[in-house]
Amino acid sequence: MAALFESLLALPWPVTAILAALFFVATLILLYPDRAYGTRSRSDIPLAQENKPLIGAMAAMAQGIDFRLERLLEQVRRQGEGKPYRMTLYNPMFGPMDMIVISDVQDVETVLRDPYTFVKGGLLTSLLTDFLGQGIFTSDGERWHAQRKTASHVFNVKNFRNFNGDFLHEVGYLIKHLEAARDAGAVVDLQDLLLRCTLDSFGRLAMGSDFGCITQPGSVKEGRYALPTVEFMEAFDYVNGTVAVRAMQPFWQLQERLNGTTNKIKACQKIMSEFADKVITDKRRKMEKGETIGEDGKSTDGRHADMLDYFMRTTNFDGGVPDDHELRDVCMNLIIAGRDTTAQTLTWVFYMLSSHPEVEAKCREEINRVFGKDGQPTYEKIKELKYLTATFNETLRLHANVPFNTPTCTKQTTLAGTGTTVYPGDIIQYSPWVMGRLQSIWGPDAEEFRPERWLDDGGSVKKENTFKWPVFKAGPRICLGMNMATQEAVTFMAQILRTYRLELVNEDDPSKWGKYDVDPAKRQGRYSSALTLGLKGTVDFKVHLVQ
Ligand code: HEM
């Protein structure tokens, strides 16, 4: 051994250095033959085959995210539906990461019932902080709890009646645009129109101020009907799309600095902050003049209170008064919560209807039965639309708009379903998108689009176990806007479907797919990269009047 060492030292120093480096790497590979550097060896949970020596699953995670959901589903099936498995990673900022992927309903329930043990954690916060700050989505513990309490003021029954008027106002504009596109024989991007509607309505709900996105006049260029861009909307969408891909890029800070993204994000933040700051200043002035909000949710000058009104009149979790920065975070969080989720899910509804004419016919039959020929879409009538509600739920089952959730474990816990033990620092991942397609949860027809599965024998909408269907999350952090989103979506569906038939076109454009094939059945990844699951590119429809 000593002789070997001596002869090594006798070699020219660059050769010695290379041999030493090779020796070092080989030793590391021996220590981490099947997982990422620094992660623990454990025999109780199998490693997915994507894990490689030293780098773990980093290469697999870095592959385009376009059809990542399909890949995740394949992986879960390969490992065995409901059985946990591990993906290991090494992140330069956070060090070794052990990700436990779960898909068993009771395992998911253990995690979601306890948001104080399974927290959002530092990884998520660091990826999203320049967009969502310390708002409700990125907060844990008392900071989260205080925000949830304040925001829930807006979600009471009285307000739901008011929302109905708001939704009808928005969909009225949307219908005018559909009419104009039909008159011109042009195609129209439905996702764009819907995102404009919900940005306006959430601007009003969150801060009492709308962005005028859907009220713009449209025009036709090269056979496409479109509306002019709105600065706030562009800024919001740019930051949303950028932060969403960070989790796949271990060196995102460096990358963003080198390719100019950091500066662009700052410019977008300026646009969004200026808008929010103006609203906050106006509200502060009114408060100084003595404006108050009554028990009935109305201000002294008779307007409906928005969420910002409530946040400006409450103290923080630490007893302090929220500053402008915190209030801006409140607005951005509420807009991201309600705007993209609802508009994108509605786009998926019409996308699914285009290939399921029998479902569309049943929806129309119900609308005609409940509304009559010219009946008004009142709050009560909207609640009677059970088949439409079932169609909305079924769309969300197959296209869960928040497709992943990755809480961090802070206390050793045994998951109730599979008996798996998870430890502090473990990242738990479950995907409502994947769970929506598992036969072990939904039966042999899990991948079929069948709204009837949501209706009981009396025709009422079944109340599913939310842990089996965590599209709105479940437990103490369940989505605050779940009922509101359903009400909004059903109102939009009813008002559009009673007059128009939308025909999906231009789906043969390869740039809209993560993995394109001439055979539509073999295409994968019709997804945009954002925090929520939208459709990539335009979603073009031709508009026809219902005969
Ligand atoms: C189809 C529409 C919607 C879907 C699929 C949806 C889904 C979700 C999901 C999955 C979460 C949990 C996110 C997480 O913590 O990781 C969430 C939280 C939340 N959602 Fe929704 N949402 C929708 C619409 C809305 C609407 C219209 C609002 C109204 C403002 C809203 C307000 C919220 C809020 C405030 C939270 C945070 C709850 C908390 O952490 O305590 N959502 N939503």
TrEMBL record:
Q: Membrane spanning segments where?
A: 12-32
Which cofactors does this gene product need? Answer: heme
Which keywords appear in this protein's UniProt record, sorted alphabetically?
A: Heme, Iron, Membrane, Metal-binding, Oxidoreductase, Transmembrane, Transmembrane helix
Q: Name one GO molecular function term.
A: heme binding
Q: Which residues bind heme?
A: C479
Task: Give the superkingdom in one word.
Answer: Eukaryota
- Family classification: Belongs to the cytochrome P450 family.
Protein name (record)? Cytochrome P450
| Annotated source species | Gonapodya prolifera (strain JEL478) (Monoblepharis prolifera)
